[in-house]
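Subgroup meeting minutes
Present: P.N., E.W., G.H.
Scribe: E.W.

1. P.N. recapped why we're keeping a running log of single-chain structure predictions: easier to compare across weeks, and new members can see raw inputs and outputs side by side.
2. G.H. added today's entry (80 aa).
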Amino acid sequence: MWCTFSETQKLLGIKGRQTLYNYEKKGYLDGYIEKIEGTKYIYMRKIKGKTVVEALRKNVFTIDLKDFDADKYLKNLSVS
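Output recorded in log:
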């Protein structure tokens, strides 16, 4: 599941997109970002056993990130 920076911001409960861009610059999102047709997307499923939330929690202690499970999210969408 790929999400734009705006979508990721909302799903994780981050106040501003700039926060995610700062994490990208610091390298906290390495491996989770892909540029598709000129737009940057963040991969929300696990890579090497870690979700993007788990990867961010390893480096970021100043904000409270919502737990996000892409599989549960997609399952809830299909049920609705």
